[in-house]
Amino acid sequence: MTDTKGRTRGWTSSPETKDRVLDAAAEIFGERGFTAATMADIVDKSGVSVGSIYHHFGGKAEVFLAIWSDLVEQIDGRVREAVESARADGVDNPMQLYGVSTRAYLELLWENQSRARVAAMGDTPPGFDAIRRGQARRGGDHDIALLGLGSSRREKLLRDFLLAMRAESARVVLKCRTRAELNEAIDTAVEYLECLDPAKFGLGVRRA
To answer: Where does this protein bind DNA (predicted)?
Structure first.
């Protein structure tokens, strides 16, 4: 968990307690917005004492940031695991690996819709937008690295297109109500991304 100054706090209680606090806070923030929500609301919703929440998180802003930090950690883990599994199965095509990472990312977002929606809303703690942009950029850079894009103007432009398409796909996914809708949205997103395969333009990782 990360506080407003970028420091990491440990969690000595059970993971279930932490998740209960974060899930409750995400629901409260989603209903009332960050500004109107109170620590008392989170205490009432989670059933965890205010002292325990303050001890482990440090306040309302830190609880909000912990929701985001935990979501990012889950995404990173899911994506890396999916890509490693695909490679172990013999997948070495860069664009296919990027599709695997995109699919894992979108599925994780849908599974954590309440937290993802809170992180995307406009009413957030001061400085959060910069934190979100920075972490999103780092995560995108890791996935884009699968494609081996360089620093030329054409490659930078293609990189921005791919990241923008994936960000828009995330917004669509968060509107899906059923697994069938989700599967269709993800399949379509991956199909569209493949239209921008760097290899089609002579860019990125060179294949034998």
So the answer is: 38-57
